[in-house]
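Trying the structure run again after the queue cleared.
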Amino acid sequence: MTKKPCIALLFIFLFFCAAITYSQELKLSNLFCDNMVLQRGTEVPVWGVASPKEKIRVKFAGQSVTTRTGKDGKWMVVLAPLEASKTPREMTITGNTEIVLSNVVVGEVWICSGQSNMQFAVSNAPEVDALLSSAKNIKSFEVKRTVSFKEEDNVSGKWVDIPPSSAVAFGFAYFLEKAEDIPIGIIHASWGSSSLEAWMPRDMAEEFPYFKDIMNDLDADTETRNRINKALSSGEERTTKEDIFMRRQPNILYNAMMKPLAPYACRGLVWYQGERNTRYYSGVPMVNEDNWYHRVIGMKEYGDVLQSWVKRYRKEWKNKKMHFSVVMLPGYGKGTNNNPDIDSKSPTAMSWAWMRESQQKVLDLPYTSVVNTIDLGDETDVHPKDKLPIGKRLALLAQKHTLDKDIVAEGPVLDQVKAEDNELVIHFNNAQGLKTIDQKDPRGFWIADESMQWHKAESKIVGETVVLSNDAIKNPVYVRYAFAGKPDVNLVNAADLPAYPFRTDNEIPTDE
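Done. Tokens:
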């Protein structure tokens, strides 16, 4: 045999090897499966993988969109905005093979994320659990709790025809469905005791030097990386201790549990997190066995990082109007009658107050809201069971801020403070029908003059204002309301929604 036929045979052999190597079965991201909910009123990306240059066609609701895969086999099409529909339909994806998805509906889709109070199960919240039997048109996608050292393309989980396991997420979905009578889809991606840093993309290190230091240290920490890889290889058999160790590391939850969700079309994201970034936990400084906790951002800076985090997620989803609804930390920690002077010496009491203030900085961005929980919580339990009001208030905020409903969705919010004689007059927004839940004078107000010596205020409601005074203060200047770990409050508007905590002084919290 001559050399030329041998060379020809070699090329043919290599060609077929390459064809086998680069040939991929048509697959969708795991987010696209039977029982899924698609977001109404916006463009809907659909994506997956197949062989390079393969022609892909997606058909749904009278639309037919085509594309060709890239050299890497990845593809994406974008469906035009859809109308809400409870009627189950099929989506067909055709390439060299065909995939048919069934029971697909269109409605409102939200991601619900955070740490343990978002993970908190329906079964542990009796008032929420009682709603399960009457739930309808609610579907969920439970993201598997895992980590990764690289940004993943896919996520583990599937859409199911049942509500989410999270009490807050289900309560939210339940009341939103009741109000709108359309399908609600919840993508639940939370993990207890995780910090904000755990859910931050690596590239945020370029904006925040502290995060860059953390990531550099993680990269260089061979022992930690080996420990995590070993825990991952053990699968579902890994210990609780290893679970806790993994979920408290920076960035790697984002890589595995959040990055693969983008850019799935959704209305917004509900964020219930902050406890781990609060300086003190359970009343004592918290330094875990890995000596890592103290390096997460604290309550003073949390709001600034949170704002950047929201912007970064919107960039990932390519949606500048993606709504973020932040759940304020509820009451927790034994204070001493709301006294700012004394409570400042109680780390638990005041750290929760400073964190709430920091969380509210997110409101400086458009398309954001904060769920007020100042009247909820448990002074001795960081995992309170009263999740039902949170779900209700989330649904109200979603209706008002994302669906343009003309409703009252927030309690009284500070507008301005006016000094009149020896009194301070507090003016609020959302103060129609200002009242107290027990018909007594408002509680939780403290005032001070320039000396910053705080005194409990005598308070009374006058129309839609609250008038404050104290005989010991001739020229009151500053006021704080509900600025404690577990304040005793009773001020609401006609919708029975509580007034938001606030302060007018410029004191900067110091580390204990």
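DSSP finds twelve helices and 26 strands in the chain. Worth checking whether this holds up in the mutant runs.
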